[in-house]
Structure formats: structure tokens, C-alpha cells
Write a structure and sequence with these properties.
Layout: E1 8-10, E2 17-19, H1 45-65, H2 75-104, H3 109-125, E3 140-141, H4 147-160, E4 167-171, E5 176-181, E6 186-192, H5 193-196, H6 201-216, H7 219-239, H8 248-294, H9 296-306, H10 309-325, H11 330-349, H12 353-366, H13 377-385, H14 399-408, H15 410-423
Parallel strand pairs: 4-6
Antiparallel strand pairs: 1-2, 3-4, 5-6
Helix pairs in contact: 1-8, 2-3, 2-7, 2-8, 4-6, 4-14, 6-8, 6-9, 7-8, 8-9, 9-13, 10-11, 10-15, 11-15
The chain binds zinc ion (2 copies).
Length: 426
């Protein structure tokens, strides 16, 4: 009977010694044996799989060509924006026509009906300006709630050439994002504690640099215009879809509508394609902003942390399952919620370099990307790491400011932890 766990074994492929750590996958650095034993993530549907494939190709192309120059000035971005504005012009045209017909045909039923229909369509197609969550599930912080956090954001914003944000929404995911909301185009940072918690202070600066870089490069404005145009086009495709059980007359209408339907669909696919390439480019440029703010080294480290997205999600789920199987005693729930983020940071912090190396290789094999809007993570990392002139850190948070920010996030941390423990087991 074997009692002691072996600390090394021989690689079945090349026969070299490979270290064994029961917490992680055993693999061979020499020949690559067992680098990626997990089944590849199942793509969400055929269309998403196709987009990911194209995204990977754009990401590789841009990596090879090199990305520099002014953001959003390349042909695909300019064309995407022109196409999107054209789509919105059609919506505006419908609204104007609706008003003209309403006013011109005053008193006639047909004038009233046609005008109302045109206005109704324009209303449905109108561009939407985002909004903040109001469910209370996701805590929203304003400047007065978290002066140190907003101060750090301002500092990073100044480095990357933009202004700070108006609100921070705190979530659980191992992710972050920026967008705008309301008619005044206020700015919101979506901050996932699953990522924020496992980052060192300088990696956090790099993360903020990346996100604020999207504002500096005009990506959010561009994104709003294009996203709304894509939405409008999808609605057009829906309006023009054939009746499933047509009568004779409807069958004729279906035939007549096939041409505009395919034309609209073509524009939709074209716009999506142009956008894919433009967003990949925007990500590389935002990584550049990350390096300027937090240093090239910190931005490279951030890329390694992004490879842990699945591990973080798994940890949070495990915490939730453990707390729920312990029974309904509120004491054990409280306990689970209180220490959640610290335990997560500790577990992730204990991951050895050898495991990161495996994750990097597995990511390269899979073409890992956060989603189809991002280039593969190993290419983003490579671009940063191979920079001819690495950036020093422009923003260096002090220990005091780091502690103050953590204290400001304490309330949000426990509210989000409660939701994780309650929901993530399902
Ligand atoms: Zn081997
Ligand atoms: Zn980004």
C-alpha cells in the first residue's frame, strides 16, 4: 500500500520528471503533455462560435500587423460608424415623415393612421441610452460614498487622457467594464469583485487604465452608436420576417419582403463584422493605456489574472454550495459571507507560477478570449510583454489609499457576498 503521496512522476509522453501538486493539474513543461485536460468551453451557439473564430482571426491579424496610430481612425471603424449613422438616419427619417404626414393629413383617417404607424416604428427603433441598475442587488457608489476610490480613478484618468467616472457599480464577476448612461452621457464603471479582489494595487491601476482607456479612445461613444444600430437592424429583420402560416395574400407579401429582408440582414452582418475588428483594435489600445497607468509589468500581470476567470467563478460557486450544504443556520451563512472575498484572494494568491504557465499555454491552445469582443488573452499579453520600451508606473497607490479604498468598498463587499452565497450554488 502506498501511503505517501508522490511528489513527482514521470511524463508518460517524454519520460521526464514532472512535479505533482494535488491542488493543480499535473502537466509536462518539456513536451506539453496534459497542458489542457479540461474539455474546451462549449461555445454558446453556432453564431457565437463563428464570431469567436472571426474575433480570433482579427486578433491574430492585428497582433501581426501591429496596432498604433489614432484609435478609431482605421477604415473598418470609420465605415462601421458611417453605416451605423445611416441606420439612425433612417429612424429619424421615419419620425420626421410621421410628423409631416400627421400634420399634412390632419382630419383624414388615413393620414392619421399612417403618421401614427411611422412614429410608432421610429419610437421602437430609437437609440437607447444605458441606465444604472436600480434593483438594489448591485450596489452603486457615487463620489461621496467612496472618495478614495474615485480619487484613484481620477488620477488614472488624467494619465490616460480623460476624466473619471460618475458612478461605480459593484458586482461579483471576475470582470470590469465601462459604459455611459442617461441623456447627459454620464460615465459608469462596472467593477467585479471577483477580479478586483484578486489583484494587487498596481494591477488594479492597470485595470482602471484599461477601462478608462476605452473612454479616452472614444470606444464607449462609438459603442453606443454601433450597438444601437445593430439593435435597430435586428428589429428590422424581425419586422420583415415572413408570416409562419401565410394566407395567399400574405404569401405574396412574404415574397415582396424577401429582398428588403436580405438587404437589411446583409447590412447587419457587415456592421457586425466591421465592429468585431474595430473592437479588437480598441482592446489592444486600451491595454496600452493600462501599461501607461500601472506599468507594462502590471499590465502583463493583469493578463495572467484574466486567465483565472473560470477559477474565480468556480471558487465562488464552491463557497455558495458549501455554505448551503452546511444548513440554513444563519450563523454559518454570516460566516461564509464575511470571509468570502478574503478567502478568494488567499486561494488565488496561492496559485504558483507553474500553474500560470500552464494556463497561458492552455489559453494559447484554445485561443482563449474573454468574449468575442476581445483578442485572445495570450496575444494581448504578448503585445504588452514584447513592447520595445516598457512603461514605468505613472500612478502608484500608497498603502493608506489602498486601505481607504478597501474600507469604502466594505459595504458593497458584504452585499455582493450575500448574493453570491445565496445564488451561485444553483
Ligand atoms: Zn513530457
Ligand atoms: Zn476592454
Amino acid at each position: 500500500m502506498e501511503t505517501a503521496r508522490p511528489q513527482a512522476k514521470l511524463c508518460p509522453d517524454c519520460g521526464r520528471d514532472v512535479p505533482v501538486d494535488p491542488r493543480f493539474v499535473t502537466w509536462c513543461a518539456a513536451c506539453g503533455w496534459n497542458v489542457d485536460p479540461g474539455a474546451p468551453q462549449a461555445p454558446e451557439g453556432r453564431l457565437e462560435a463563428l464570431r469567436r473564430q472571426l474575433a480570433r482571426r482579427h486578433g491574430e491579424q492585428l497582433y501581426a500587423e501591429g496596432v498604433d496610430g489614432r484609435p478609431l481612425k482605421d477604415a473598418s471603424s470609420v465605415l462601421a460608424r458611417a453605416l451605423a449613422l445611416l441606420v439612425h438616419a433612417v429612424t429619424l427619417g421615419l419620425a420626421v415623415a410621421g410628423v409631416v404626414i400627421l400634420v399634412g393629413g390632419i382630419g383624414t383617417f388615413s393620414g392619421w393612421a399612417l403618421g401614427a404607424v411611422l412614429l410608432g416604428i421610429a419610437f421602437v427603433l430609437r437609440p437607447r441610452l444605458g441606465s444604472l441598475p436600480d434593483s438594489g442587488e448591485e450596489p452603486v457608489l457615487y463620489r461621496a460614498d467612496a472618495p478614495s476610490l474615485f480619487g484613484l480613478i481620477d488620477e488614472v484618468a488624467a494619465v490616460v487622457g480623460t476624466r473619471g467616472v460618475d458612478a461605480v457599480v459593484v458586482g461579483a464577476e471576475a470582470n470590469a467594464a465601462v459604459s455611459t448612461y442617461g441623456i447627459r452621457r454620464r460615465r459608469v464603471l462596472w467593477l467585479g469583485l471577483g477580479l478586483w479582489t484578486v489583484l494587487t494595487p498596481r494591477q488594479r491601476v492597470a485595470l482602471l487604465g484599461h477601462e478608462l482607456g476605452h473612454y479616452a479612445n472614444g470606444d464607449t461613444r462609438h459603442g453606443t452608436i454601433v450597438h444601437n444600430a445593430l439593435r435597430s437592424l435586428s428589429l428590422w429583420v424581425y419586422f420583415l420576417s415572413p408570416e409562419p402560416h401565410p394566407t395567399m395574400a400574405e404569401r405574396l407579401a412574404n415574397y415582396l419582403m424577401a429582398v428588403p429582408r436580405w438587404a437589411v440582414y446583409g447590412v447587419l452582418v457587415l456592421l457586425d463584422q466591421l465592429t468585431l475588428r474595430a473592437t479588437q483594435r480598441a482592446e489592444y489600445l486600451a491595454d496600452e493605456a493600462a501599461a501607461r497607468a500601472g506599468s507594462t509589468e502590471a499590465a502583463v500581470e493583469l493578463m495572467d489574472r484574466i486567465l483565472l476567470t473560470d477559477s474565480v467563478a468556480l471558487e465562488l460557486r464552491r463557497e455558495s454550495v458549501a455554505a448551503q450544504t452546511k444548513g440554513r443556520a444563519s450563523a454559518s451563512r454570516d460566516e461564509a459571507e464575511r470571509g468570502l472575498w478574503d478567502r478568494l484572494a488567499e486561494r488565488i494568491g496561492a496559485i504558483p507560477e507553474r500553474e500560470y504557465e500552464r494556463l497561458r499555454r492552455a489559453a494559447a491552445l484554445r485561443g482563449h478570449a474573454v468574449d468575442s469582443t476581445h483578442p485572445p488573452t495570450h496575444l494581448r499579453r504578448g503585445r504588452l510583454a514584447e513592447a520595445a520600451a516598457p512603461h514605468p508606473a505613472a500612478v502608484r497607490p500608497t498603502e493608506d489609499s489602498t486601505a481607504a479604498i478597501e474600507a469604502e468598498l466594505a459595504g458593497a463587499r458584504s452585499r455582493v457576498a450575500r448574493r453570491v452565497i445565496r445564488d451561485y450554488a444553483g
